[in-house]
């Protein structure tokens, strides 16, 4: 009819529509999953296999970071610090997706993501306590004596090298900077270790395409050597580094018996840094399998696992079980013509050690 306002709905349809609008979907009830106490559930061996640390070592670590892991409230079954720690250790030990490790301890994927970040940061804050270069004369002498027992190489305070830690592509315009010579994305991590495989210094901020020498040139430890803060000490590196008076590399073409003995001793003594990578990555396979987290968190995890590696050595945890065989991926080496110049002033220390020490061992 003309002049009459016609509605697109009749009265019955309007009533149904308003009834539906007023109907509130019931809220999903909270589900509290079972959170087993794995300190009790597993035997010592089962615990060590799954979390890569002994129960006693794990309890010692928990005591150091428990205040950083406590929840602000006990409401709604707050997640205990021990559960948070075990979730993170399980993540390091498997490299699984966060939803998998969350199910393992009975929390959601969102909580698992938050917990891994929280625990990793708490462990990383232990760096000044657990990753440090020998400072006083007594500790320096002890480290040098341990190295000397390996192959009679004098004055050594550490062995240096780099290893690639696999990560997912960080994306963005600079993503290709992280692609290493092997073709995958990684951080190129520099470490210096002692004869007991403990990490004394770590640099975990350079993308995989960077060369070992570039990382060392921009490191704080090189500045300390250059400034004379670490006198009467040397570190051993492979031919990927340039030889200097504090970083000794092997001779590319040894001729005399003393030079050959120097090279043999150098290789045997420096081998500890290669072994440290094997133990470190076997203890925490996430370093080899690859991290499915953002780039910033992956750097924190690298430092955190290095600290845990040192704690396990201090607590005499023993080597982790061999389940997978991971290849240690190093960085490209410089041509020997660059690292081994016989006329370089940087060869004075190397020549001095060969002539004054190894020549007398023959």
UniProtKB/TrEMBL annotation:
Cytoplasm listed as a keyword: yes
Q: Which GO terms describe its molecular function?
A: hydrolase activity; metal ion binding; nuclease activity
Q: Name one GO cellular component term.
A: cytoplasm
Question: Keywords assigned by UniProt?
Answer: Cytoplasm, Hydrolase, Metal-binding, Nuclease, Nucleus
UniProt superkingdom: Eukaryota
Q: Does the keyword Hydrolase apply?
A: yes
Among InterPro entries, the record links this protein to: HARBI1-like, HARBI1_animal, HARBI1_dom
- CC cofactor: a divalent metal cation
Q: Which residues form the DDE Tnp4 domain?
A: 160-310
Q: Where in the cell is it found?
A: Cytoplasm; Nucleus
Query: Which family does the record assign?
Result: Belongs to the HARBI1 family.
Q: What does this protein do?
A: Transposase-derived protein that may have nuclease activity. Does not have transposase activity.
Q: What is this protein called?
A: Putative nuclease HARBI1
Q: Which organism is the protein's source? A: Dendroctonus ponderosae (Mountain pine beetle)
Q: What taxonomic lineage is listed for the species of origin?
A: Eukaryota, Metazoa, Ecdysozoa, Arthropoda, Hexapoda
